[in-house]
Description:
With 182 residues, the chain is of the alpha+beta class. It has 2 domains: 2-79, Arc Repressor Mutant, subunit A (Orthogonal Bundle), CATH 1.10.10; 96-175, no CATH class. It has 9 helices and 3 strands; from the N terminus they run αααααβααββαα. It has helices spanning 2-11, 20-41, 51-59, 63-71, 73-79, 105-112, 120-128, 155-165, 170-175; strands at residues 96-104, 130-138, 144-150. A hairpin with a 5-residue loop joins strand 2 (130-138) and strand 3 (144-150). The longest helix has 22 residues, at 20-41. The two termini are 42 Å apart.
Amino acid sequence: xxxxxxxxxxxxxxxxxxxxxxxxxxxxxxxxxxxxxxxxxxxxxxxxxxxxxxxxxxxxxxxxxxxxxxxxxxxxxxxxxxxxxxxxxxxxxxxxxxxxxxxxxxxxxxxxxxxxxxxxxxxxxxxxxxxxxxxxxxxxxxxxxxxxxxxxxxxxxxxxxxxxxxxxxxxxxxxxxxxxxx
Length: 182
């Protein structure tokens, strides 16, 4: 169902500029068709997501890319033109930013197509699992300097991410085939 929802959200990005209602109607029609096939096969019916769910999925897409696919690149560049340069850092590592947010494993697994390989119990367990990601970013280069993923968002998570910032990562860079040590 997640893959079907993602497919129809992506179909909104079309030069013909379909409305969300039109995309939703097409998705609902396909789900109805799939349910007829599933009934013949003895499988349970699929529940059609609400129109608001499709709308949230579309709004979660990169809005520049959505606008560009519907109106063209030149109009998208004009609409999303940078109004200022932001923080102007003359050197790298002069300022870093740190942020923390929650991620839902079941969403990531569904996006990667891994949820299909899990049992029903495994999918239920993933729906309950929330992880906290703490990321440290260099403002000048937009380079990720360190990150940490844990089950709890606390000071220890932030300290661990900051510790990764100051640790030597040359061996990781060489193993990844990086051309620079930064």
